C-alpha cells in the first residue's frame, strides 16, 4: 500500500472519527452540564461493565472476521465470508445468553453482596441491566466489523463513530425535558437494541447485494473459527478489561461523581490515539493479506508509512490538548477541573501508545495471537495491581498513572518482540 493510498484511506476514516468525536463531545458536554455527576458516573460504570462483558462474549469474532477477510481475499474466495459471519453470530448469541444466565444464577440471591462490594445500593441493578443488553451490544460490534471486513469501511466507521451515539444523545435530550435524568442508563442500553437491528439489516443487505454466490468455495467449521477467534478473544478481553477496569475499581473506592470526572479525562485522552485507530482500521486486513503472500518488504513499507501518519496527527493532538486542558475540562463543568492532572498523564500514555505503531494489530493479523495474549495479560495484571494500589491513595490520578505504566510496558514488549522475530520496526522510524 503506497503512502498516498494509505494516507487517503486513513484520512477518510480519520474524518469520520473526528465527526464522531464531535458528536460524542457535544453529547458529553450536554450530560455533564445538565445531568448530575452521579448519573453520569452510573452511565460510565455501565458502559465499562458492558465493554468487559462484551470482550468476553464476542470471543474474538469481531477481530477474526478481519483476519478471515484478508485470508479469503488472498485466496479469491470472499463469498465464504457469509458462512463465517452466521456461525460467529450463533457463537456470540450463545455466550451472551450464557453470561446473563450465569450472573442471574450465581448472583441473583446475593444482590446485597454485589452492592456491598461496590458500596453502591444500585450496583447489582446496573450490572444486571448491562448483561440483559449484552447480546444487542455484541451483535452490533460483530456487525460493524463484518461491514469493515467486506470492505465497506466508511459505512462501518459511520456506525462505529456516529450512529452509535445518536440514540443515547437523542434519548438524553428527551430525558432532560421530561426531567427523568436518572433513566440515562436505560436509554443508553436501549440504543444498542436499535443499533443491533439496523446493523444486522445492513450486513444482510450487503451480503445479498455483493456476496450471494460469488467465490463461495471455502468452508470453515465452528471449531476452526473458534481456533482462530479464541486466541484473539483473549487479547481482545485483555484490551477491553484494560480500557475499563480502572473505572470499575474506581467505583469500588470512590463515588460515581469521581467516576464521571475520570471518564471525561479518558475520553479526551483517547483523542490522541485517534490516528492510530484510524490507520489500524485501514491496514489490518492488508497486513493479513501481505503476510499470507509472504511479502515482508512490502510489510515494512506499509508499517513505516503508517507510523509516520500516526505521529504527525497524534503529536498535533497532544500539543493542542495539553495547552488547553484546563479550559476544555471546564466546558464540562467547573467540578471536572479536578481531572486535569489525570488528563495530562493519560494524554502522554495515549501518545506513546500511538507512536508505538500498529504492533498489536500486526501480531493479531500474523497468527501471533498467543504471543500478543501473553504480553497484554502481563500488562493487564500490572494495570489491575497498580489500580488497587494507587487508587485508594491518589484517586483518579492513581488510575491514570496505572494506565500510563501498563500501556508503556506492553507496547515496549510488542516493539521488541516484532523486531526480534521479523525485523519489522513498528515504532516510529
Q: In words, what does this structure look like?
A:
This protein has one domain (3-422). The model has no long low-confidence stretch (mean pLDDT 86). Helix 2 (37-57) crosses helix 4 (81-107). By secondary structure, it is mostly helical. The chain is built from 18 helices and no strands.
> How many strand elements?
0
Measured distance between first and last alpha carbons: 17 Å
Using the CA coordinates, give the radius of gyration: 21 Å
* Bulk shape: globular
Helix content: over 70%
Summarize the biggest pleated sheet. none
Low-confidence stretches at least 5 residues in length (pLDDT < 50)? none
Supply the helix-strand structural class. mainly alpha
Instruction: List the secondary-structure elements in sequence, H or E.
Output: HHHHHHHHHHHHHHHHHH
**Count of runs of 4 or more consecutive helical residues:** 18
Count structural domains: 1
Strand content: under 5%
Mean pLDDT across every amino acid position: 86
